[in-house]
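Sequence, please.
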């Protein structure tokens, strides 16, 4: 049996680990919470090689380019990439509209007592001390530093030994990452088991809202917008673009990695380029440069993952203010040059959203990550084909198709947002803090006999002939005054018992 499981693909093993983890968490409940230690260790191992790999690979990728290739990247490909980034970020801005409006409160949150810090663009994006940026995991600053070094290498003739050393380091980091990836079934099992064992019904319902919202925007982006946007610039139909790429996209979904299908996507992109520019000899070969570059830069599918931050904000009740949105979007874009395992905790910390929700992201990513690979594959294919045809001067812009793309995208998003909002209108935000607070009892159980007196039963004002201590001793009881329903000092819990801060002190 173990041999049969071991012979399965890694994606199948991860799926089995996910299912078994959910079943174990539901069956054992809180008893399985200690498995979270293994889940935390797995997350730490995943993050271990991410930032060094991003740093090295960005320098290596840019350093290998010639001046001509760099010019091509800047003038043409980056323009297309900027347009796609803008569309994906606009989707993130629209996402909150899908979540139902709820009123909830929590007894305590450090975000209530700590002023929300403003985004410090200087420290975030300017690596004044690159080693400090690497040590603290400030992803945007690390990306800027790596891009600067990589760009400087383009014009250096004696760069080959340095690039070969970086290539060796990159290969080593990749091998370490692949070894850690083999532990994914165990790590996903531990994380999922703890999440399923500790999540309440409200949190699970809220996660369903995130799944539904993500799928709406994923469909609008990967299945509709990207291929239809390509048809507006290429003399090709939707079926010609997406039909032959179906096998590669399904493989990316099944394996959970778009990297393994890059050769297939490059071959298909070359076929599309030959159709739109049959007489050009340079256009198909430029695909070999554009496809790896598209893989190195965050695509719209990866940016869509930032929607989890919006969901986490709604779930925790920590709203993203209007002034925070620009900083969040820009920081999120730069953070996606690295892995989500680094970007998501970084953004949660920047927005003062509870860091515990990262565990929820890891669980959700088992589902959303595979759909994200399909979106990444569609982006890489479209980016390579459109950019190569643009370099050959063979783009044929169709205004009618652009209108169809814009109207269709708006319709899908509008109907999807309204559908999710209406379908989940009765689902409330996971806010068990107030329920737990209202059901609390005395901090230290008391055996004292307590009798509550109303104002008529209380004695009149003392005449001053004896002290308070003498009155207490002569009466044999201690009387304590309180104001009713003054949370959190005095109030009645769900059982009708008088509790609170003042009551605990009195006992």
């Amino acid at each position: 049996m173990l041999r049969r499981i071991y012979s399965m693909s890694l994606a199948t093993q991860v799926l089995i680990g996910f299912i078994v983890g959910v079943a174990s968490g539901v069956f054992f409940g809180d008893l399985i919470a200690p498995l979270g230690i293994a889940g935390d260790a797995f997350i730490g191992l995943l993050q271990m090689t991410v930032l060094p790999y991003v740093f090295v690979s960005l320098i290596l990728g840019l350093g290998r380019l010639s001046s001509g290739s760099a010019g091509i990247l800047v003038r043409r490909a980056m323009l297309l990439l900027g347009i796609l980034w803008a569309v994906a970020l606009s989707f993130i801005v629209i996402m909150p509209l899908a979540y139902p409006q709820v009123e909830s409160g929590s007894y305590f949150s450090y975000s209530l007592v700590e002023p929300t810090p403003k985004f410090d663009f200087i420290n975030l994006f300017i690596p004044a001390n690159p080693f400090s940026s690497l040590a603290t995991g400030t992803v945007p600053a690390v990306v800027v530093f790596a891009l600067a070094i990589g760009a400087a290498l383009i014009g250096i003739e004696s760069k080959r030994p340095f690039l070969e050393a970086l290539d060796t380091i990159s290969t080593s980091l990749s091998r370490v990452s692949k070894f850690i990836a083999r532990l994914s079934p165990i790590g996903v099992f531990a994380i999922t088991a703890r999440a399923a064992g500790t999540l309440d019904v409200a949190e699970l319902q809220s996660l369903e809202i995130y799944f539904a919202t993500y799928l709406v925007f994923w469909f609008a982006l990967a299945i509709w917008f990207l291929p239809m946007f390509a048809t507006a610039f290429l003399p090709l139909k939707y079926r010609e673009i997406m039909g032959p790429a179906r096998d590669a996209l399904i493989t990316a979904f099944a394996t959970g990695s778009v990297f393994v299908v890059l050769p297939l996507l490059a071959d298909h992109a070359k076929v599309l380029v030959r159709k739109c520019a049959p007489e050009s000899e340079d256009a198909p070969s430029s695909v070999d440069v554009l496809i790896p570059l598209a893989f190195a830069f965050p695509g719209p599918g990866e940016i869509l993952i930032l929607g989890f931050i919006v969901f986490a904000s709604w779930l925790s009740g920590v709203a993203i203010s209007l002034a925070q949105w620009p900083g969040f979007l820009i920081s999120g874009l730069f953070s996606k040059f690295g892995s989500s395992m680094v970007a998501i905790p970084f953004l949660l910390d920047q927005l003062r959203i509870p860091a515990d929700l990262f565990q929820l992201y890891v669980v959700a990513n088992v589902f959303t990550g595979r759909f994200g690979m399909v979106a990444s594959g569609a982006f890489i294919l479209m980016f390579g084909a459109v950019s190569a045809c643009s370099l050959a001067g063979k783009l044929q812009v169709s205004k009618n198709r652009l209108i169809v793309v814009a109207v269709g995208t708006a319709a899908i998003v509008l109907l999807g947002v309204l559908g999710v909002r209406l379908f989940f209108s009765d689902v409330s935000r996971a806010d068990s803090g107030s329920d737990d607070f209202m059901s609390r009892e005395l901090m230290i159980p008391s055996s004292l006999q307590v009798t509550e007196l109303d104002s008529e039963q209380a004695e009149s004002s003392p005449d001053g002939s004896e002290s308070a201590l003498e009155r207490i001793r002569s009466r044999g009881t201690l009387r304590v005054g309180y104001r009713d329903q003054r949370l959190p000092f005095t109030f009645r819990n769900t059982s009708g018992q008088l509790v609170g801060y003042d009551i605990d002190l009195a006992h």
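Residues 104-114 have pLDDT under 50 and may be disordered.
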